[in-house]
């Protein structure tokens, strides 16, 4: 596989046939009871000796392993959301790292959804912890609202380690407009300013791959397709990580707004609508891993059809 992150991601998308990513958001109250039963049987006496936090960490780990097994041959990437692991302290962080490793071993691109960001000196520590380790994720999400000096440590770490970034530009949540739509005297919004900053940083020497795309990408929510079309023009070399499909209400047509004219340059994420598919009426009666797989197949086909040039 190519050494440059953008080239590697686009090659994986071509191999799997659809630009999609499955988010791993393992909420303990939504994990199928069968997972707890199988883990309890597997661990036996050791299960009884664990405290509740360690048990929960083991459950979310095993759930994620089963999801990875169900989708690994269908999708190019997964996106573990670290918040669902960090809430269990050291045990949860260890399980996050184990899930990242397992996904990479399964041949998947791994995007660590960590949304880190701070002033330069602290950002450098975050960057080293997430991007400079051999068995870490292929890319991470970062908060760009500290400006260029807060982003540069991440950019440099990504460049030097063959990794990638997705900088928050236009998020998918309903209240994003409260901050991101604030405009200057000329009418330019905060998210447009952020996009221009990302485009400039991502065009620096050593950051553009053979594909023409940078290892510095952007998070652009599918729930704002008109803004996504504008941002595609402002950031022609950025790969967009596109949340909002499925549970957040965006359609495949909405997602298509983030792609270039050739149907490339973006990867669409779905989390709850895939990993908790066993709770949806259309998959009623299926074993839960089979429901996950069926939902992933439907998701991938829907996006592939929408972005086909």
Briefly, what is this?
The chain is of the alpha/beta class and 309 residues long.
Top keywords for this entry?
TIM Barrel, eight-stranded parallel beta barrel, globular, 8 strands, alpha/beta, 309 residues
What does this structure look like?
The two termini are 25 Å apart. The chain has a single domain (5-307), classed as TIM Barrel (Alpha-Beta Barrel). Helix 4 packs parallel to helix 6 and helix 4 (52-71) crosses helix 14. The relative contact order is 0.14. It has helices at residues 5-16, 33-43, 45-49, 52-71, 83-86, 89-105, 120-131, 148-161, 177-180, 190-202, 225-234, 252-256, 272-275, 288-307; strands at 20-24, 77-80, 109-116, 139-142, 164-170, 216-220, 240-242, 266-270. It is 49% helix and 13% strand. The mean pLDDT is 95. An eight-stranded parallel β-barrel has the order 1-2-3-4-5-6-7-8, surrounded by eight helices.
Number of domains: 1
Total helices: the number is 14
Strand-residue fraction? 5-15%
Give the end-to-end Cα distance, rounded to a whole number of Å: 25 Å
- Which CATH C-level class is it? Alpha Beta
Number of strand elements: 8
How would a textbook summarize the main sheet? 8 strands, parallel, barrel
How would you name the CATH homologous superfamily?
A: Aldolase class I
Main-sheet strand order equals 1-2-3-4-5-6-7-8
Residue share in helices?
40-55%
Low-confidence stretches: none
Give me the Rg, rounded.
Answer: 19 Å
């Amino acid at each position: 596989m190519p050494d440059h992150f953008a080239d590697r991601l686009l090659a994986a998308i071509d191999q799997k046939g659809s630009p999609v990513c499955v988010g791993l958001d393992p909420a303990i109250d939504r994990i199928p009871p069968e997972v707890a039963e199988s883990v309890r049987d597997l661990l036996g006496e050791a299960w009884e000796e664990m405290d509740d936090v360690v048990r929960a960490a083991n459950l979310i780990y095993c759930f994620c392993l089963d999801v990875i097994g169900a989708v690994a041959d269908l999708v190019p990437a997964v996106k573990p959301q670290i918040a669902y692991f960090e809430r269990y302290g050291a045990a949860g962080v260890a399980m996050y790292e184990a899930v990242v490793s397992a996904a990479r071993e399964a041949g998947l691109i791994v995007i660590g959804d960590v949304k880190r960001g701070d002033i330069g000196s602290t950002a450098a520590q975050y960057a080293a912890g997430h991007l400079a380790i051999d068995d870490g994720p292929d890319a991470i999400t970062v908060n760009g609202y500290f400006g260029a000096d807060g982003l540069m440590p991440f950019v440099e770490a990504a460049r030097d380690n063959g990794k990638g970034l997705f900088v928050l530009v236009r998020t998918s949540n309903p209240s994003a407009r409260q901050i991101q739509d604030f405009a200057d005297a000329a009418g330019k919004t905060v998210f447009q300013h952020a996009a221009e900053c990302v485009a400039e940083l991502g065009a620096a020497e050593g950051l553009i791959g053979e594909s023409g795309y940078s290892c510095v990408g952007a998070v652009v929510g599918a729930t704002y397709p008109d803004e996504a079309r504008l941002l595609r023009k402002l950031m022609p070399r950025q790969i967009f990580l596109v949340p909002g499909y499925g549970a957040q209400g965006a359609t495949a047509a909405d997602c298509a707004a983030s792609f270039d004219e050739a149907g490339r340059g973006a990867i669409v994420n779905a989390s709850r609508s895939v990993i908790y598919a066993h709770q949806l009426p259309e998959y009623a009666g299926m074993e839960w891993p089979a429901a996950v797989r069926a939902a992933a197949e439907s998701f991938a086909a829907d996006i592939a059809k929408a972005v086909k040039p």
